[in-house]
Design brief:
- By secondary structure, the protein is mainly alpha-helical.
- It has a domain of 159 residues.
- The longest helix is centred in the last third of the chain and has 111 residues.
């Protein structure tokens, strides 16, 4: 069944899929209007596509396609439903007929199995809900990965940013302290130089006085030795 599902959704021409998405509901309504009043009207069944995210460009990842189709396979309804109808459409893909004829021809085959347009649309809606659940599971897992891989690291970056800012401020503070200490050392050196000069002046004055006094005494001693013998 899984292999068939992949052929239904992956091997079809992309342009055909696009046309089917645009005209499918209109065509189903037209077919329904041609039937005698069914128990459940296809007009009463709506598929909400208003908030559908525009499809991204490029090719789908096979891994995710497999996950989605396996979910559909697991949730496959009993009896002839949309998936079997999709198989009938696939079998007509190589036939030379327009889109409307293909859908009507597939419906003719489906009717022999007890299917109606209303049932086909309702079961298709069932599979859309199945896929929507898978989307929600994926988004939850993605959110967890984002929290782990992105948000957590962003928080770490914020902490590191704060730490770096504090370190930069500390560097500025240290620079100011260095400048203050440098200025203080200059002042102290000036004070030392002044003190050295003052001490030297005092020393000079002392030695001058000492030389004067001792000089006189020495002179007197010399004279006493000369004159008093």
């Amino acid at each position: 069944m899984f292999g068939k599902l992949k052929s239904f959704f992956i091997l079809e021409d992309e342009d055909e899929n696009k046309k089917a998405a645009e005209k499918g509901e209109q065509e189903q309504r037209k077919v329904e209007s041609e039937k005698s009043a069914p128990t459940v009207s296809a007009h009463d069944i709506t598929i909400d596509v208003a908030n559908t995210t525009p499809p991204p460009s490029g090719k789908p990842d096979t891994k995710f396609v497999d996950i989605l189709l396996k979910a559909v396979e697991k949730d496959n309804l009993e009896g002839f439903d949309y998936l079997e109808y999709k198989s009938s459409l696939q079998s007509l893909s190589g036939m030379d007929m327009d889109e409307a004829t293909k859908y009507k021809s597939a419906l003719a085959m489906a009717k022999t199995m007890g299917a109606t347009p209303a049932k086909l649309i309702k079961t298709a809606q069932h599979y859309l809900k199945t896929l929507e659940k898978e989307k929600s599971k994926f988004q939850d897992a993605l959110k967890g990965q984002r929290t782990k891989q992105v948000t957590g690291k962003e928080a770490s970056i914020n902490k590191m940013t704060e730490a770096v800012a504090k370190k930069k401020q500390r560097i500025l503070d240290l620079q100011k302290e260095i400048e203050a200490d440098t200025a203080k050392m200059k002042t102290m050196k000036d004070e030392i130089n002044s003190a050295v000069a003052k001490v030297q002046g005092t020393s000079d004055s002392f030695h001058y006085a000492y030389n004067v006094v001792t000089g006189q005494i020495v002179a007197d001693v010399e004279k006493m030795e000369k004159y008093l013998k």
